[in-house]
């Protein structure tokens, strides 16, 4: 009986599925493969029905975005699991309080995998019950000797809330030479290939649909980590991510979501004593970012910064209850994987361009 579901969110991604989904089905015999369709209007559903009938499809009535789409799909999966063991939480097991462990693996539709990719993560999770979630080493699909921007070999956050990865700092993406092949604690696992215990997912409320897309997995992992649950990268598992398939770098809407959601992320999760100092500094750093966009004549991105800040102020009251709950339930404050330095200072002023340089 399988106890892991690979869940892929799709929205008008028939071409991506034709290109990548067969590798997932073929090379993941340990798992059930499920596609959550976000109200597609292309021939995605026809392709699945005709070419991959073994893949279960959960149909949503419209495009709910990344976070809410996944969350609704997992709710439907919880109601009717593919096997009696999957996402069931009442069957005896030697792990975690006598209940059986089951897992979701949230996988982007533009990820290619190879034989044996899944087993190292599954083995690690089954032997480390203190760990809630993990990710594989994420490499670039079109340049497989390079790390991939979206998650590389595990994610961290600096003192001011800027995410960075082991293998990728801002636009500097490293070549994979085995330098990050050790399994280490991280703060966040990439949403491009996120494996999480089903029980942990629901215990902390799952993905927050109000983010729509971008940094929602960081919010989920931060909540888990602050409550004492572990997050790791297992580089012995490898996945190859195309990246940029939905909103490429430099897209004003992507800039808007990243600036807005980063503020929401910080408001939900920062300890009380850090909130005001960080937000004061972030205002001036956002000013600098907007000036940079002006100098580059990126007017859409310039406007995106200030629309993001305006919308954050409007949305903030809706997050007050979540913030208080996160602070109340936190057992680690701050979490160890939030660095005490500014990644901006380290990267742009001190010239540290790799993760190893940050810690030497």
Brief summary of the model shown:
By secondary structure, the protein is α/β, with parallel strands linked by helices. The chain is built from 12 helices and 13 strands. The chain is globular.
Please tell me about this protein's structure.
The chain is an alpha/beta fold and 360 residues long. Helices cover 39% and strands 18% of the residues. It contains twelve helices and 13 strands.
* Main beta sheet strand tally, sense and closure: 9 strands, mixed
Strand content: 15-25%
Assign the structural class, choosing from mainly alpha, mainly beta, alpha/beta, alpha+beta, or little secondary structure. alpha/beta
What average pLDDT do the residues reach? 92
Q: Give the uncertain stretches in residue-range form.
A: 84-98
Number of helices: 12
Order of helices and strands: EHEHEHEEHEEEEEEEHHEHHHHHH
Tell me, briefly, the overall form.
globular
Secondary structure blueprint with pairings:
Layout: E1 4-10, H1 14-26, E2 32-38, H2 44-51, E3 56-60, H3 65-79, E4 103-107, E5 111-113, H4 119-127, E6 131-140, E7 155-157, E8 163-165, E9 168-169, E10 172-173, E11 184-185, E12 193-197, H5 198-203, H6 216-226, E13 230-241, H7 252-269, H8 272-295, H9 299-315, H10 320-329, H11 343-349, H12 355-358
Parallel strand pairs: 1-2, 1-4, 2-3, 6-13
Antiparallel strand pairs: 4-12, 5-13, 6-12, 7-8, 9-10, 11-13
Helix pairs in contact: 6-7, 7-9, 8-9
């Amino acid at each position: 009986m399988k106890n892991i579901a690979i869940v892929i969110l799709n929205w008008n991604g028939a071409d991506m599925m034709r290109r990548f989904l067969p590798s997932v089905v073929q090379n993941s015999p340990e798992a059930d493969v499920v596609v959550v369709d976000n109200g597609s209007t292309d021939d995605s559903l026809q392709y699945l029905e005709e070419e991959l009938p073994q893949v279960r499809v959960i149909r949503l009535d419209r495009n709910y975005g990344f976070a809410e789409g996944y969350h609704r799909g997992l709710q439907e999966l919880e109601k009717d699991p593919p096997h009696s063991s999957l996402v069931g939480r009442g069957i005896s097991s030697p792990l975690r309080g006598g209940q059986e462990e089951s897992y979701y693996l949230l996988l982007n539709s533009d990820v290619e995998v190879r034989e044996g990719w899944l087993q190292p993560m599954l083995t690690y999770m089954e032997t480390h019950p203190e760990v809630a979630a993990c990710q594989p080493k994420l490499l670039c699909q079109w340049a497989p000797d390079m790390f991939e921007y979206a998650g590389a070999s595990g994610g961290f956050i600096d003192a001011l809330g800027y995410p960075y990865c082991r293998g990728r700092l801002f636009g500097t993406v490293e070549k994979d030479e085995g330098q990050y092949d050790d399994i280490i604690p991280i703060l966040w696992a990439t949403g491009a290939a996120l494996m999480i215990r089903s029980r942990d997912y629901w215990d902390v409320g799952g993905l927050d649909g109000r983010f729509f897309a971008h940094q929602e997995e960081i919010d989920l992992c931060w909540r888990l980590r602050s409550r004492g649950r572990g997050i790791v990268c297992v580089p012995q598992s490898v996945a190859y991510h195309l990246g940029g398939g939905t909103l490429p770098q430099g897209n004003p809407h992507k800039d808007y979501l990243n600036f807005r959601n980063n503020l929401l992320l910080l408001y939900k999760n920062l300890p009380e004593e850090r909130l005001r100092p960080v937000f004061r500094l972030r205002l001036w750093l956002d000013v600098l970012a907007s000036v940079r966009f002006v100098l580059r004549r990126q007017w859409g991105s310039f406007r995106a910064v200030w629309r993001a800040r305006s919308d954050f102020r409007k949305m903030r009251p809706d997050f007050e209850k979540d913030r208080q709950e996160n602070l109340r339930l936190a057992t680690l404050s701050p979490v160890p994987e939030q660095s005490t330095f500014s990644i901006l200072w380290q990267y742009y002023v001190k010239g540290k361009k790799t993760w190893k340089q940050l810690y030497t």
